[in-house]
Write a structure and sequence with these properties.
Number of strands: 0
CATH topology of the largest domain: Arc Repressor Mutant, subunit A
Number of domains: 2
CATH superfamily of the largest domain: Winged helix-like DNA-binding domain superfamily/Winged helix DNA-binding domain
Shape: elongated
Strand content: under 5%
CATH class of the largest domain: Mainly Alpha
Largest sheet: none
Order of helices and strands: HHHHHHHH
Length: 202
Amino acid sequence: MKMSEDQIIDLLEKISNRAPKFIAERAIEALYLEFNPILRNYIWKKMTKDEACLEEAIQDTFFEVWKHPERFRGDSTFIVWLIGIARYKTLDWLRKVKIEDEDVGDYLEVIENHEKTPVELIDEEQILFAIKSCLETLTKNGKLSDAQREVLYLVLIQELNLNEIVNIIGCPEGTIKTRLLNARLRVKNCLYKRLYGGTFHG
């Protein structure tokens, strides 16, 4: 039987109260048993198939719930909030071990426009290499912030819509659109510099 939002809130209150402790521990265990499969499936399909990352990200997610159950304010559903935590934990793990997402090919979308693009001039292998190099260079040089890169992950790799991203990140829609626009322009500029020796003016 699927757990209701009211049941979830009741469990979070028990975790927050911490008294008696064994009640709080049973509450976090109940949440873990209910949502662990959903998080595992989400991370496996959308982010990485690395088993070590899966385990650590899920454990860190529920540890975060254990430490700060009060941070769930009901602005979204619990599972959307929980996925938001899992996403950050997974990306943090991937950054630490310097693993590039194997679906980097989806970043091809950031250079799509109605003009003649590098996609029309060079083959896919060169494009993938150029995009991956640009992402690494922009991140290393601080020209692509973590916030901008994460919005790209959510839109292009996790295929979430703006409403879902607003619920997960907690930023206004306008802020998210601005981050996405700036991130796309910076990736485009990097690609044009690499491929043409010039700057994109789109």
